[in-house]
Write a structure and sequence with these properties.
The complex is a heterodimer. By secondary structure, chain A is mainly β. In chain A, strands 1, 3, 4, 7, 8 and 9 form a 6-stranded mixed sheet that branches. A 3-stranded antiparallel sheet of chain A has the order 2-6-5, with no helix packed on it. Chain A has strands at residues 9-12, 18-23, 35-40, 47-50, 64-69, 72-77, 86-93, 99-101, 105-109. Chain B is mainly β. Chain B is built from no helices and 11 strands. Chain B has strands at 3-7, 11-12, 18-25, 34-39, 45-51, 57-59, 67-72, 77-82, 91-99, 102-106, 110-114. Classes of the chains: A mainly beta, B mainly beta. Chains A and B meet through strand 3, strand 7 and strand 8 of A and strand 5 and strand 10 of B.
């Protein structure tokens, strides 16, 4: 199973919006509405920010939104804040209780 | 408060074995599936293994046949037995709770280094 494809890095200014793509195949992203997104500040525990394609866990700001079209999922962060600077990973359920992550995207808030 | 605390990471020789533990609190372990996810130095996250409430287990191809995941609900713990370790198994290993096909709570991780 290959990693899902994410851009290695993105950058944007505070207050702006940024989108991160996550491309898989018809066997993973395209097959199930079981895409999740994680925010990871290095040295800390990763944090779930989106599950089931577009659902936010309690406590996650609505500045974080996500969607999916075909084999590609997308995470959008609006109103960028300095604390949003982190690594972001998408993840998709594959089958038979296995999962695959994207390679990760480093977000820089300029 | 949900907490997951990993332990057992160490420096081990190639071909060696190690057992990681994950102690959980703040929720009833028997009601949840659990996972291990790892991050090699400078690399991204990689899903490693999953154990269901009924103790069925599933593994990434990269560790299948070498790693064994188990759970002890009474001791509120999950264990990852790692055998025939390779340099490419060097990583921080995270214990992760499963919530409806996503991973909702993560531990801080424990470092495994495989090197001679």
């Amino acid at each position: 199973q290959s990693d899902l494809t994410q851009p290695r890095s993105v950058s944007e200014s505070p207050g702006q919006s940024v989108a991160i793509s996550c491309t898989g195949t018809s066997s993973d992203v395209g097959a199930y509405n079981r895409v999740s997104w994680y925010q990871h500040h290095p040295g800390k525990a990763p944090k779930l920010i989106i599950y089931d394609v577009n659902k936010r866990p309690s406590g996650v700001p609505d500045r974080f939104s996500a969607s999916k079209s075909g084999n590609t999922a997308s995470l959008t962060i609006s109103g960028l804040q300095a604390e949003d600077e982190a690594d972001y990973y998408c993840c998709s359920y594959v089958d038979s209780y296995t999962w695959v992550f994207g390679g990760g995207t480093k977000l820089t808030v300029l | 408060e949900v907490q997951l605390v990993e332990s057992g990471g160490a420096l081990v020789l190639p071909g060696g074995s190690l057992r990681l533990s994950c102690a959980v609190s703040g929720f009833t372990l028997r009601d949840y599936s659990m996972n291990w996810v790892r991050q090699a130095p400078g690399r991204g996250l990689e899903w490693v293994a999953h154990i269901r409430e009924n103790r069925d287990t599933f593994y990434a191809d990269s560790v299948k046949g070498r790693f064994t995941l188990s759970r002890d609900n009474a001791r509120k713990s999950v264990y990852l037995q790692m055998n025939s370790l390779r340099a490419e198994d060097t990583a921080v290993y995270f214990c992760v709770r499963d919530k409806a096909w996503a991973f909702d709570f993560w531990g801080q991780g424990t470092l495994v280094t495989v090197s001679s």
